[in-house]
Amino acid sequence: MAKHDVLLVKTVDFGAGGLKQVKAPKMSFRVQIDADKKLIAALDKDPLLMADLNDAAKKVYDQFTKSMKTKLASFDKLFVDLIDAGEKKETIEKNVAGLRKSIADEVAVVEKGAELAVMAAYKKLQGKHKEWKKFKIKVAASITGTVAGLITSVTLMAVGGVTGGAGAVIGAAGLIKSAQTLTKDINKIGTDIDSAVKEMEKIITFVEKTAEKKRVFVANEASAAVLQEFLGMSQPSFKMLSNQGELVAAKQAELVVGVHDVAKTLNATLKAQDKFKKEFLSDVGKKLKKHPTTRKKENFAKVQRQLDDALAGNYTLVQKMLDKVIAMNADAKKWDKEVKRLQAIVGKLGKMDTKGLKVLREALKLLGAGLSVIDGNRIVTTSAELTTALVPAGVFYAYDKISSKALDGTVFDAA
Q1: How far apart are CA 244 and CA 198, in angstroms?
Q2: Is beta strand 22-23 parallel, antiparallel or unpaired with respect to 149-150?
């Protein structure tokens, strides 16, 4: 007995160019007969006889390559769609296993088909060559080599979730808490200013009523009597008036510093948010570079768009708070002139002589007008609004929530 190759293709050409994800298998296709040496010798002498066997094997080979080309293209499209949809690694691996099994099953069928086809061709030759009837042959077909797989290793599907910018988000959340502390401090300052102004207004009212007493107008010493009665009171006094005036001035100075601190903190929050965005998108870009998806640009653009949408509300919220702080600062600056004038008037009242009530009344009138400008209650209201508005801003900075919105519907959705 001797063996002879009817067909041998060392490297099968599946004509599978243009595949994006599937790597075509490297295979050899062999059909071999094992027959009596005399039969092998006869076949060698007449190439046309061998050609009949070869044609039978070639038909099976051609059907195999055609079927494989269709199979590979079909699975390639499936993998492109799955990967671009951000399917889980496990699902991809399951389908890769399905492709390999499908090829293995087909190989088994094709090998058997090749053997039967060559045997059928030989039987036809036996009918034409009666002397061959005494010869029996064995036909063995074998398709060997690697199986199909993904061009890019499936392990790259597990590029990991996006984590860029996590530190910046934590920093932004911390800044929001700092801003809340500052607005609460400003609220206290506003309350102190409002209380001091009201106390001064009470003292002014007391002096004015005292000055209206009829006995005050009887003699030139009237102003002295008023001052004596006023200064002698255990409650309202010029000293108290002076103390409250100094308190208003001091609190106004604190307010200016506090408002600037809030503005700087809120502005730092926006910068931290910008830093987060930059680092997040940088990480997305790096992950996409490694990812086997064919739609890298589309995925990046979608993440960028959705991240902008996720951050837009908080940008607007923080900016509105900054606008309120700017308005608060403008109010505090308006008080500069009045606070200085208030201090000057209170200083004069403390040094008043007994020349008459006119000077006293004019001073009180100016003092009252100045106090009406200094609205501590407005600061209290605005700072309370800021403190409340900062609550959702703080809650917003949850990395999982932001990243989930940004990555929704992309290849990272299942990461």
Answers
A1: 9
A2: antiparallel
CB 159, CB 415: distance < 8 Å:
yes
Locate 49 and state its tokens.
Answer: 């006889």
Report residue 5: phi and psi, to 5°.
Answer: -80, 125
Whether the CB-CB separation of 70 and 12 falls below 8 Å is answered with no
Q: What is the spatial distance between Cα 55 and Cα 120, in angstroms, rounded to a whole number?
A: 12
Give the Cβ contact number of residue 89 at 10 Å. Answer: 15
Q: d(Cα 9, Cα 52) in Å, to the nearest integer?
A: 17
Q: What residues have CB less than 8 Å from 390, skipping those under 6 apart?
A: 176, 179, 180, 183, 321
Cα–Cα distance for residue pair 291/414, rounded to 1 Å? 13
Burial of 237 (0-12, 13-18, 19+ CB in 10 A): middle
The tokens of 232 are what? 């002698």
Provide φ and ψ at 8, rounded to 5°. -140, 115
Distance between CA atoms of 265 and 233, rounded to whole angstroms? Answer: 47
Residue-level pLDDT, tens digit, the chain, 415 residues: 788 899 999 999 998 888 888 888 999 999 999 888 888 887 777 777 788 899 999 999 999 999 999 999 999 999 888 888 777 778 888 888 889 999 999 999 999 999 999 999 988 888 887 777 777 889 999 999 988 777 665 555 555 678 888 888 888 888 888 888 888 888 888 888 888 877 777 776 666 665 555 444 334 344 444 444 554 444 455 667 777 778 888 888 888 898 899 999 989 998 999 999 999 999 999 988 888 888 889 999 999 999 999 999 888 888 888 888 888 888 777 777 777 777 776 666 555 544 444 555 555 555 555 566 667 777 888 888 888 888 877 777 888 888 889 988 888 875 4
Residue type, position 389, single letter: A
pTM beyond 0.70: no
Number of helices followed by number of strands (H, E) in the chain = 10, 5
Nearest to 31 by CA among 56, 67, 65: 56
